[in-house]
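hiii so um. not sure if this is the right channel but i have a protein structure encoded as tokens and i wanna go backwards to a sequence. like what aa goes where. can anyone help
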């Protein structure tokens, strides 16, 4: 996938695992993709999350849904599972290991890296990351071990310093504040609860997409 296509796929980047959904995860994902989510990351984490075979089974079921909608399927921080499923890519954080080694371990696959500043962004891209996740942009209750809230000015700072790779903002993003993130220079937004906890995940994804596009237009 070239960078232009990848940037298009970043618009509404939906992330979740079973613990983020109050109803069936497959249904939530299907609705999200129907509504307009453009990329999906399987992130099975936290208290009560699935393990072993049931975790793999859920991942496979969600991958199937993504295939039906031609939406890339990314795995959070599990190279083995990514390889086992032949998923489209892997997303890792700063604490998930040596980025250069991870890059080498998954040739030809998308690699996304969470970064918090220019130094981390440059390093991730030097070793061959395909896209960057930046955040938390706004306060979030979904991930407790985050860095301090940074606001969307950090995205503008990355752009002003020549970072032209695909970027998604993450953390506390909803349809009401997504446009600020793309207006600041992000290609899209990554969300968990704005879609997974919404009564109508399809509407949530659609509203996010509209907000993302509005921000891009005024960028
Ligand atoms: N990384 C930084 S913030 C965050 C992650 C995984 C959680 C985002 O969840 P939400 O519900 O969209 O705020
Ligand atoms: Mg991680």
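sure thing!! here u go:
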């Amino acid at each position: 996938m070239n960078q232009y296509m990848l940037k298009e796929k970043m618009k509404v980047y939906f992330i979740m695992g079973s613990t983020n959904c109050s109803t069936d995860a497959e249904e939530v994902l299907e609705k999200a993709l129907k509504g307009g989510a453009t990329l999906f990351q399987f992130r099975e984490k936290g208290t009560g999350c699935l393990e072993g075979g049931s975790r793999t089974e859920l991942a496979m079921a969600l991958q199937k849904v993504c295939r039906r909608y031609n939406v890339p399927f990314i795995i959070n921080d599990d190279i083995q599972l990514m390889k086992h499923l032949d998923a489209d890519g892997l997303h890792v954080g700063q604490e998930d290991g040596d980025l250069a080694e991870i890059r080498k371990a998954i040739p030809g696959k998308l690699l996304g890296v969470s970064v918090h500043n220019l130094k981390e962004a440059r390093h991730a891209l030097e070793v061959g990351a395909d896209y960057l996740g930046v955040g938390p942009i706004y306060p979030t209750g979904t991930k407790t071990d985050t860095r301090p809230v940074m606001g969307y000015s950090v995205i503008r700072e990355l752009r002003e310093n020549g970072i032209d790779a695909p970027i998604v903002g993450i953390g506390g993003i909803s349809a009401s504040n997504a446009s600020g993130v793309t207006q600041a220079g992000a290609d899209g937004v990554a969300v968990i609860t704005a879609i997974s906890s919404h009564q109508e995940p399809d509407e949530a994804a659609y509203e996010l997409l509209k907000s993302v596009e509005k921000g891009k237009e005024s960028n």
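oh and The mean pLDDT is 97.
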